[in-house]
Amino acid sequence: MEGLQWTYYFLSFLYSVLLYSLILFTLSFLSKTSKKKSYLILLCSVIFFYSICLVGSYGYFSYSGIMPNFFVFSYIFQEPFNSWTIFQGGLTIWSLIGFAALYGFLFFSFKVAVSTVKLRYTKSVYTLLSVAILFLTAFFHNNTRFNDQIYVADTNSISFINRNLYNLATGDRLGSAGLQSRNKPILSLSLHPAKMNVLIILSESLRKQSMGLYGYERDTTPFLKRWSQNSQDGSVVVFKNAFSNSSSTLISVPSLLSGVSPIQPVSMTHSSPLFWEYGKVAGLSTFYISSHSFRWNNFSGFFKNAGIDFLWNKEISGLSVFNDIGIDDRKTVQEFQTHVNRLKQKGENFAGVLHLNTNHFPYIIPEEYVYFPIGKDTFAPYDNSVRYLDHLLEEVFSFFNRENLLQNTLVIFTSDHGEGIFEHDYIGHIESNHIETVAIPMLFYVPNSLKKKISLERLKNNSDENVSNADLIPTLVNILGVENQPEIRGFLSKLEGRSLLSNLPKDRRIFISNNNETSLYRVGMSYIKGNKHYMLRLNSFPPDEEMFDIKADPKEKKNLWPAFDLETKKEVRKELDGCSLCRDLYSASGIKL
Fold first, then answer.
1. Spatial separation of the C-alpha atoms in residues 246 and 530, rounded to whole Å
2. What would the DSSP string read from start to end of 225-276?
3. Please, is 29 exposed, middle or buried when counting C-beta atoms within 10 Å of its C-beta (0-12, 13-18, 19+)?
4. Any residues with CB less than 8 A from the CB of 24 and at least 6 apart, and which?
5. What percentage of the chain carries pLDDT values higher than 70?
6. Residues of the chain with pLDDT > 90: what percent?
7. What is the DSSP string of 286-303?
8. Whole-Å CA distances, 364 to 74, 367, 377, 504, 566
9. What is the number of helices (H) and of strands (E) in the chain?
10. Cβ atoms of 513 and 262 closer than 8 Å
């Protein structure tokens, strides 16, 4: 550790000692004033707190490789259902016996400590301890999130709980800035309305490597495999090397809908046109039908003036939570079918998004759709969710066939990011940039009627190249035929994303980051270029760098970085030149470029 980190560490240790001393003095005072009931209540509460601190902090560390931080506690406050699911997963007989043993040991230790405390100058001691604790509490309240991996367990826990309670009470969003209301761009209507439909089907937390379509040994995607190989009314292009530019929904979804990379200024995300605004320019009716809660991180405010003719989500539906913070996807698919039927009756073409939630942790699906037996199989819950999603997609395409809509509809299917299932000792996605969290599916269905407008050959030529979900907007702008309007041309020229109908460079870099002004997760960043995947990890201690060959080592088991000499490392880092966010992250890591 550097000098500043040692300072924070010793302050956290001092805080812990002061707090422990205050507790002992209080317990001793109560025991000697015959307030036995108050003494026992406080004693049991304090021991429970310390037991939870120790088990929670070091249990989480052994589980994820990092200490609990602001976002762990935010997750508990914002998503208690999921938190309870994770907690249940750890409730084994041995864990309960271990907790009881720790509780008993601490109970005995505290009683011995209380009985040996000598009280002198009680009021002075109380005053000094209280003032010192209040001072350090305020200090950590403002500074903890910047050095959150070097505190002792009780200081760390108290500081982050304090910060989250403060945020709940005041509405402050420090630590997770969230999305803001957008500046609506002024765009002119096209003189040549598009005579087609465009549908983006967006899945949540769907990773490529658990899909039979991409070679997974389990039959998780029977419909997608069948449909991609035998589509009668059109052609399906499967992109083999598609990546999300963030494993955080808070960054990846706005990026996918705007084409703005997370390494670009956040102001661009809040001022660039979104998918629906391009759709409106092309004369299409627009919709966003989602299973998600849009109160989460102010998605509702972000989409408020995005030109969406029809918006439907958890809050608007009035339905209860089914999985994670989302409603039952079956209800969402029903609403989608109802709305598309209305548009068909009116004779309106559309540009819309169907956003499903099935693959998000804790992977809850209807019991009748459980296909792989759940028991000791770590992957079964997630694999079942993938197979269930495949069933939902079959319902959507069967509906399109019945209504004769597929013959004039471009369909893009993808995911916001992937999911880790203990490949790198981690389950979830936010705290990881490893390949399982960023490699995503991407499929284009091009009906025969649109093949003159959409170059199938160019899509197929790029299907083996590294592509990003930020490439979708430039591609759709081309397909809608609005790319030559002056104001749109200005926006497109600034985007990191590239049209999949263009000649993509073989050596392009795809940046991946969970850190910017919108989302302050202390994860780091990475980039993919060719077969190489470089990572800067801020959530390890100390921060470190990793490099993998994702072709020779697709599961990223062999870290090549330690074997590189200094000159090779400098060459790898040169790819980050010109990236201001990358420089900021390096500065936070303490690693010298």
1. 18
2. HHHHH--SSEEEEE-SEEE-S-SSHHHHHHHHHH---TTS-HHHHTTSPPHH
3. middle
4. 110, 113, 114, 117
5. 92
6. 47
7. EEEEESS-STGGGHHHHH
8. 22, 9, 16, 39, 47
9. 21, 16
10. yes
Burial of 389 (0-12, 13-18, 19+ CB in 10 A): buried
pLDDT score at 71: 65
CA distance 221 to 212: 5
Beta bridge partners of 199: 352, 411
Q: Which of the two residues, 33 and 247, has the higher pLDDT score?
A: 247
**Residue appearing with tokens 């049209």:** 499
Mean pLDDT across 257-264: 89
Confidence check: pLDDT of 226 > 70: yes
What is the predicted pLDDT for the residue at 542? 76
Domains recognised in the chain with CATH numbers: 3-170 (no CATH), 197-504 (3.40.720.10), 520-589 (3.30.1120)
Rounding to the nearest 10 degrees, give the CA dihedral for residues 137, 162, 158, 117: 60
Q: Do residues 401 and 337 make contact, with C-beta atoms less than 8 angstroms apart?
A: no
pLDDT tens-digit profile of 434-481? 999 999 999 999 998 898 889 889 999 999 999 999 999 999 999 998
Euclidean distance between CA atoms 526 and 576, whole angstroms: 10
pLDDT digits 0-9 by tens, 50-96? 999 999 888 877 766 667 876 677 667 666 777 777 787 778 898 89
Nearest-angstrom CA–CA distance, 107 and 99 = 12
Residue 437 near residue 246, CB atoms below 8 Å: no
Residue pair 340/197 in contact (Cβ under 8 Å)? The answer is no
Measured CA angle at 532 (ends 528, 536), to 5 deg: 65
Residue-wise pLDDT for 158-173, tens only, equals 888 887 787 777 665 5
Q: Which DSSP string do the residues of 10-53 spell out, in sequence order?
A: HHHHHHHHHHHHHHHHHHHHHHHTT-HHHHHHHHHHHHHHHHHH
Picking from 22, 524, 482, the residue whose alpha carbon sits closest to that of residue 263 is 524
For 111, 378, 382, 427, the CA distances from 423, given in Å and listed in that order, are 44, 11, 13, 8
Integer Cα distance of 455 and 460 in angstroms: 9
Pairwise CA distance, residues 109 & 113, whole Å: 6
CB 61 within 8 A of CB 67: yes
Average pLDDT over residues 87-112: 89
Of 189, 137, 138, 154, the C-alpha closest to 58 is 154
Give Cα 569 to chain centroid, integer Å: 29
CB 210 within 8 A of CB 383: yes
DSSP string, 384-441: HHHHHHHHHHHHHHHHHHHTT-GGGEEEEEEES---EESTTS-EESTT--SHHHHEE-
> Which band of pLDDT confidence, cut at 50, 70 and 90, is reported for residue 563?
very high
Q: What is the pLDDT of residues 384-404, one digit of tens each?
A: 999 999 999 999 999 999 999
Q: Where are the strands (E) in 71-216, listed by range?
A: 197-203
For 380, 387, 571, the CA distances from 363, given in Å and listed in that order, are 10, 11, 41
Rounded distance between C-alpha atoms, residue 404 and residue 396, angstroms? 12
Where is 533: in which H helix or E strand?
strand 532-537
Question: Going by DSSP bridges, is the β-strand pair 544-549/350-355 parallel, antiparallel, or unpaired?
Answer: unpaired
